[in-house]
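Hello, quick one for you while I still have it in my head. I'm working through a protein record and want to make sense of it properly. Would you mind checking whether the tokens look sensible for this chain? I owe you a coffee for this, so here goes:
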Amino acid sequence: MTMAEWACRRMGLGPTTHAESAVPQGAAPGWAKTSSLPDLFGTHPATSELWLVEAKGSRRLGLRPRIKGAKQLDVGALVPVTHQKVLCGTSLERRLFMMIDVEDVPGTGNSGEGGPKTGNSGDVSVDNADEEAVEQDDEALLELARSRMLTYLALTSLPRDGLRITAVGRREEGSAARGDLIRLLESDRATTELRRHVPPDAGDEAVRQQNGLDMLAGRLPGTDLMLGMSRRLYGACRALAYEERRVVARIREERPKYLAELPREVQPVDGTVARPPERQVSDRAYEERIAEGQEYVREVREEQRADQLRSVREGFTMGDSSSWMHLIDLAPRLALPEEEGFLEAATADTYLAVEEEALDLDAEAE
């Protein structure tokens, strides 16, 4: 799914959401109760249309999984509004590669001039729309924050001495014409120039003085990946985390039985939630309880949506004008992942790095 989102963002798609955790706008009520949904959905900022994305991957991807993926995208009456289907297949042998099939829904699709432009189309509005939407549209910002909550939670859970700042140059004027939503930093001139002018022992303030982006990043334990985000996105995610805790607090007060269905390790430690009954229940009854609980969570979240929109925007603005010391009570050291053997990529608010050796599939085992 990571590869699928990367590919779709290259085609101008905004942040995506797991299909089982939310309901896309325009979908029928049966969406939440349907099994075998597509993996992701998102809204294209250039057209405001819904995209459904299915991701298939294996060491050697064949035709059968792709056929299954196409069937999962065939949602029928569940999505009566105009939408686009995107099937992404990722295969590892012998090199990492992707297959992408894009299909407009007959009779509702985007043919001709009305269709969304891909990252290679030369359409300037695709790249501009993404950043402008985040800066001006509260709904787009909320969806971006929600889509990056796992990154935020990972950063907050890492040991503090493992956090670092990395300098990323701002996108150069004119790069929007190439649709560069995601930039590969080893070939990004703005980042190279920024890092050349920022001393190795400098902090985030020195990066900002050079009009650069000071991304907070950390390596995920046991992996070859490093994830990060900008100050303003961190502030937005922190605000959303607070609002989500308010959702849980309300459910705990109004419907404690739903929390009782959670696994023991995620139940509150204060003993306020009764233990589940010891008697066994059928898989079907258990699934119905879980579905009922999830539906109530969606209802509460929707009722508090106005508060979430306001809080996330305030967090975004506060983070943009603050320092990392203010946000996390820490001034992480500056690091250059490229010197540590990482290949890097970034958007205006997100950062990803992977060890170059981890991608060398042709390396001989010693």
About this structure: Residues 231-254 form the longest helix (24 residues). Confidence is low (pLDDT under 50) at residues 106-129, 176-180. The first strand starts at residue 16 and ends at 18.
